[in-house]
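Field log, afternoon session.

UNIT: design team B
ACTIVITY: writing a sequence onto a fixed backbone
BACKBONE:
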């Protein structure tokens, strides 16, 4: 009887430790996958400026613009077609994923003196 109890205890411990190892390695895999993905870059629109005005990112990175001004703004590609946030009111945001390499200049349609760029690298 004692032997059976001992066996069950050992078996339970083996099962539990296996589950622990699996969950830990699963968590590590998850972390690795997340780290490989480029984190979203934030550009604030504040005091009639893009902050930071010039950023360099890797291809596939998302950029999120957030309008912190009371005045409306846009983030519009100078070429007029790559990306365009449209009119962003106070607190509104716009997300764009940069899929091609190169220097992307952009501006605010409402305040053309607001100019900035995103350099996308491989
Ligand atoms: Cu503006």
């Amino acid at each position: 009887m004692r032997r059976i109890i001992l066996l069950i205890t050992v078996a339970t411990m083996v099962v539990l430790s296996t589950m622990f190892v699996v969950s830990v390695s699963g968590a590590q895999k998850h972390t690795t996958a997340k780290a490989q993905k480029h984190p979203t870059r934030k550009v604030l629109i504040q005091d009639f400026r893009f902050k930071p005005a010039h950023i360099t990112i890797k291809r596939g990175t998302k950029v999120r613009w957030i309008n912190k001004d009371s005045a409306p703004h846009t983030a519009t590609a100078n070429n007029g077609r790559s990306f365009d946030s449209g009119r962003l009111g106070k607190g509104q945001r716009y997300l764009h994923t940069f899929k091609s390499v190169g220097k992307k200049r952009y501006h605010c349609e409402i305040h053309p003196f607001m100019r900035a760029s995103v350099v996308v690298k491989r």
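LOG NOTE: Strands lie at 41-46, 49-51, 54-58, 62-67, 76-77, 93-97, 102-107, 115-121.
NEXT ACTIVITY: expression trials, pending approval
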